[in-house]
Amino acid sequence: MTNTEPRDVVRRYFDALAAGDQDVIWESWAEDGSCWYGGDLPISGTWQGREGVIDGFLATAFAHLDPDREVGVRITNVFGEGEQVLVEWDSWATGRTGRPYQQKNIGVFTVRGGKIVEMREYADTQHWERALVADPS
After folding, report:
1. What is the pTM of this model?
2. Other CB atoms closer than 10 Å to residue 78's CB: what's the count?
3. What is the full DSSP assignment across the chain?
4. Neighbouring C-beta atoms of residue 136, cutoff 10 Å
5. Pick from 133, 137, 135, 136: which is nearest to 43 by CA?
6. Neighbours of 92 (CB within 10 A)
7. Across the chain, what does the average pLDDT equal?
8. Cα separation of 85 and 88, whole Å?
9. How does pLDDT run across 32-58, given as a tens digit for each residue?
10. CA torsion, points 124, 114, 84, 28, in degrees to nearest 10?
């Protein structure tokens, strides 16, 4: 039986992201879950529904990464109270631009019934753009 405690659900989700386990990623999200990312990037805005989060937000983010190079994510801190979980993590990759991406992120997750129903992610959007989108000047 899978643990449905909010902190465990979020940790399992991050383990699945790191391992590329699409089944667990899918199972982690509620059907009507939503994801918000700030800024003015291809991944910015609110993504609605499990399909929107996985096939939209995550797919768009990963489409900017070089699939032949290492892509990593590592949790550095987890705080939880009730259904709310705050996670700090490091992420790294090489963009299709050829430039390195190294980011410190924070996400606020809401978990109900063993599923992620909401995520708000905060990160250095200028770094994301410089590393993964913008043409070098």
Report:
1. 0.93
2. 17
3. -----HHHHHHHHHHHHHHT-HHHHHHHEEEEEEEEE-SSSTT-EEEEHHHIIIIIIIHHHHHTB-TTS--EEEEEEEEEETTEEEEEEEEEEEBTTS-EEEEEEEEEEEEETTEEEEEEEE--HHHHHHHHTSPP-
4. 7
5. 133
6. 15
7. 95
8. 10
9. 999 999 999 999 999 999 999 999 999
10. 0
